[in-house]
Every structure is written in structure tokens, then in C-alpha cells.
Design goal:
The chain has helices spanning about 1-25, 40-60, 75-95, 100-115, 120-140, 150-155. The protein is mainly alpha-helical. Helix 1 packs antiparallel against helix 2, helix 3 (about 75-95) runs antiparallel to helix 4 and helix 4 (about 100-115) runs antiparallel to helix 5. It is globular, with a radius of gyration of 20 Å. The N and C termini lie far apart (about 55 Å).
Length: about 160
């Protein structure tokens, strides 16, 4: 497991470095703000990935890697396949449903597929998380998320 952790950690650090380089090209696109803009969020995520991957490598070098788990529950593979299918449907539908309509539906369905039991938790999370993300992207990062084509067809453009 040590060798796998080291290889995975190095791969993730290289991947994050690629994200940092690609995010640098975003500076010439979209709305620009002095400190924040389209490159800010990907860079934050890349830095977090570099830190976590670095910790993985350090733990592996200090021989504190997790023990190998050899058991795979086959029921989990069915849920994984269903979750991937739900994600693909969301990805294909997001341009039509828009972020604020499609994301709560996607989260509710995904939490149901993955086994969340509480109706209240599923409803609250599927409404609160997209609203919070939308506010962060719209007002803090100044990046517009997909708007609903369905609402444009029903009500016209405002």
C-alpha cells in the first residue's frame, strides 16, 4: 500500500499542477476583478489537492499508510453504476434545466441512490447546497452558472 500511496500522491500533485497552469489561462476570459475571478476557485482546489496529496506521500514515507482492504461489496458496484448514470443525466440536462433547478433534483436523487434515509436531510441539503454554491459563484467569484432554457421557453427572457 505504501508504494501505491506514493505513486497516487505524486500523480495527484502533477494533476493539480496542471490545473494551476490551466487556471492561469482563465485570467484572459470572462469578468475580471482585481483579486478574484475565474481562476481563483480552481487554484484554491488545486492547492488543497496538492496539500492532501503531499500528506498522503508523507504518511506513506513515514510508514503510516492504511492497511490494504481486500473486500469489495458487490452491492456497492450497483450503486456506483447508478450514481454515475445519474451524474451523466445531470451533466446532459444542466444546460436545459439550469443550475438552480437541476442541481437540487440531482442532489436529491443522488442522495436517495446512495442510501440517505432522512427525507428532511435530503430536501434541506438538496436545496441549501446549490443555493450556497450559486451565491458564491455569482457574487464572490463573479462566474455565471448555467441558466434554465426551460424557463426561457416558458416565460421568455427578462
Amino acid at each position: 500500500m505504501r508504494k501505491a500511496d506514493i505513486i497516487t500522491g505524486i500523480f495527484l500533485m502533477v494533476l493539480a499542477a496542471g490545473v494551476m497552469i490551466e487556471a492561469g489561462t482563465y485570467a484572459h476570459r470572462g469578468v475580471q476583478i482585481e483579486y478574484f475571478g475565474p481562476a481563483f476557485f480552481p487554484r484554491i482546489l488545486a492547492i488543497a489537492l496538492i496539500l492532501c496529496a503531499g500528506l498522503l506521500v508523507i504518511n506513506a514515507l513515514r510508514k503510516q499508510a492504511l492497511r490494504r482492504v481486500e473486500f469489495i461489496d458487490r452491492r456497492g458496484l450497483g450503486r456506483l453504476a447508478l450514481a454515475i448514470a445519474v451524474g451523466i443525466v445531470y451533466w446532459l440536462a444542466i444546460d436545459y434545466t439550469g443550475f438552480l433547478i437541476g442541481s437540487p433534483i440531482f442532489l436529491f436523487v443522488l442522495m436517495t441512490v446512495l442510501g440517505a434515509r432522512s427525507w428532511l436531510q435530503r430536501i434541506a441539503t438538496s436545496l441549501a447546497a446549490p443555493l450556497a454554491l450559486w451565491a458564491i459563484f455569482e457574487y464572490f467569484l463573479v462566474i455565471s452558472l448555467p441558466e434554465s432554457q426551460v424557463l426561457y421557453l416558458l416565460f421568455g427572457e427578462s
